[in-house]
Fold this sequence. Notes:
The chain has helices at residues 3-13, 44-50, 160-194; strands at 15-20, 25-29, 32-35, 62-67, 83-84, 86-94, 97-104, 107-111, 125-132, 135-142, 145-150. It is an alpha+beta fold. The N and C termini lie far apart (45 Å). It has 3 helices and 11 strands. The strands form 3 sheets. The protein has a 4-stranded mixed sheet with strand order 3-2-1-4, covered by helices on one side. Strands 5-9-10-11 form a 4-stranded antiparallel sheet, with no helix packed on it. A 3-stranded antiparallel sheet has the order 6-7-8, with no helix packed on it.
Amino acid sequence: xxxxxxxxxxxxDRLGTIITRPDRQWLQIGGCIYPLDGLGMVTPEMLYTxxxxxxxxxxxxxxxxxxxxTVPGYLQDVDxxxxxxxxxxxxxxxxxxxxxxxxxxxxLLTINPDTLRPLENEEDVNLxxxxxxxxxxxVARSGFLLRAVIGTSTYWARNxxxxxxxxxxxxxxxxxxxxxxxxxxxxxxxxxxDHR
Length: 196
């Protein structure tokens, strides 16, 4: 886990909750939850020190603590509903933020890709869509070990022009593909099958 990226998210949000389970601690920032492995018992005071927040600025941050005895469904390492998620081939930028769409079966979710930065140095991490509490969450796993819960966002849909612009762009993309690229792709495919 790239902890500097977690600290950057916390500095930006200025709101976090330390979730202490009997076996592991996590830090929730917005809709995302990251493990606090290898840091010992983390407290709000320790986070202020790690973030280098001066004493007189600590009132600008809100760090809470929560103890949980049982592991909530979204923090279980594996869930039978986990379905491998695939990223769309594009991102949407609106209202000053970027959003990436993921698809898992019939489920479509969007996330802010900045929330994946803490996972950049993780090996073999896959994203899954998990059913939870009547909805869905995105989880990152390395094998059978949960590495993060990634909060989804639909804030981009708040702007009705985004939908209309995406519809127009999809129509333009199809038209341009048909005009310029379909023949090339079909020729390349035919060439491959001739060599088989």
